[in-house]
Amino acid sequence: MTQPDSLHYLGVRDAIAARIAGGELKPGERLPSERQLQVGGGVARGTIREALFQLEAEGVIYRKDRSGWYVSPPPVVYDPTRWEGFMSYVEAQGRRPTTETLSKTEIACTPVLAPIFGRPVGAPMYRIRRRRSVDGRAVLVETIVVDAAMAPDLLSHPLDGSLTSVLKSAYNIAVARNRVDMQPCALTRGEAEALQVKSGLPGLNVVRTSYDAQGRVVEFDREYWRHDALKISVDIRVR
Amino acid sequence: MTQPDSLHYLGVRDAIAARIAGGELKPGERLPSERQLQVGGGVARGTIREALFQLEAEGVIYRKDRSGWYVSPPPVVYDPTRWEGFMSYVEAQGRRPTTETLSKTEIACTPVLAPIFGRPVGAPMYRIRRRRSVDGRAVLVETIVVDAAMAPDLLSHPLDGSLTSVLKSAYNIAVARNRVDMQPCALTRGEAEALQVKSGLPGLNVVRTSYDAQGRVVEFDREYWRHDALKISVDIRVR
DNA sequence: CTTCATTTTTGGTATAGACCAGAAGGGCGG
DNA sequence: CCGCCCTTCTGGTCTATACCAAAAATGAAG
């Protein structure tokens, strides 16, 4: 798989990357349109797009559907072992976090959820869907499930902040253990729509299960992140 | 960004995905060629490729340059907080790990490495480049740097196994702390070539810094993973 | 000023055709 | 049997064109 350095789209890619690295185009700024990038220099739009796709995979640029290509802001650093919640760690990095609650409903425990929570199928659960943004750009959508028996009337509390602190202050439920799974994925229909990206774009699937001191599942959370919005950082002392 | 379900390439994608999910095509098996997938049903090769790219992003299939598309094997689970080394945790999952040493050289400490190791620029260091595979498929390339003063004559030891255990048994150096950073990236020229993938494909960049009990940097390791080869899993007790 | 409808621009999808370099396979000669 | 060459197949790149739907810009009307 040797590469001859002479591929057309790689040249286009590097030219654009240079303009970004050189500060000519700043984070959040819009790139010239694909047709403008052709300039007339005998390059097909498909070739321009190939270059843009590469930069997108690198996290250098992102797109808004039918609006244009934009320079990506720096990613948020996330340490799964330190659990302060989205709002505080984004703020700690000098960024502006926001949360929107997309829906909150009471559901019946499904066959998938039952073994996770150790509760019978049909038991009442709360499901909360939220979208979280950094500096106005949506970076993740999440679906949280909580056992209704542990936190009755949860949905009447404010849900646009830290759910963990609501559970602690209103129900005296403390998280003692966290299990986090992460895997690259493609964003499908539902998540892509909520993140306002094209379906099929790469993303990161983060599944977090929180347990209390008795080992009961407090919170089951599935998050879909934009692949370019996150940087994972873990610092551990070996026992 | 509503999507009308009627897009041609999504239909093609789902048809192929169904054949894989249905067991007609098994992990490691080769898909029919792009031109064969056109069948004559009035679909352009570009549309077929669009569908294949999506499945690739999802980790369902992967490609070998100019050879064909293949069904992906399941990913390896990796827990950055548990540090047994590549060989043992891959084996523990019933897979066959292999390591090749691509190069091993003594280098002078660079301006980038100097502050990491707390050593002057020009100090002798060892640099080891390795490629690691699972069941015969290359999944990562890594570049390890070790301070030569801490592990004199390191390069004469066998390097195709666990480096950590070599450091421990031969030099009595134990890792007390690990720092791991992970970020989605695009695989560039060098890594892509070593992994035998096309340059620009998405990957995961893992940077691990290991410290001993005195806080000295024992090992600085930069890994580039295929994006579809890895699943990250962390389990932590909250203090 | 705001509001609403229209036009323009933009990226998204799709077709068709072309050529290339590398992989794979077959056959030939040793 | 092995090794080498040549052909075939395959994905990789690129051009050119076309049409669509959504976003953005524009302009008219209130």
Automatic annotation (TrEMBL), chains A, B:
Organism: Brevundimonas aurantiaca
HTH gntR-type domain sequence ranges: 6-74
Top-level taxon of origin: Bacteria
PANTHER family noted in UniProt: MANNOSYL-D-GLYCERATE TRANSPORT/METABOLISM SYSTEM REPRESSOR MNGR-RELATED (PTHR44846), TRANSCRIPTIONAL REGULATOR-RELATED (PTHR44846:SF10)
Alphabetized UniProt keyword annotations: DNA-binding, Transcription, Transcription regulation
BP terms from Gene Ontology: negative regulation of DNA-templated transcription
One Pfam family in the UniProt entry: GntR
The keyword Membrane belongs to this UniProt entry's keyword annotation: no
GO molecular function annotation: DNA binding; DNA-binding transcription factor activity
Protein name, entry field: DNA-binding GntR family transcriptional regulator
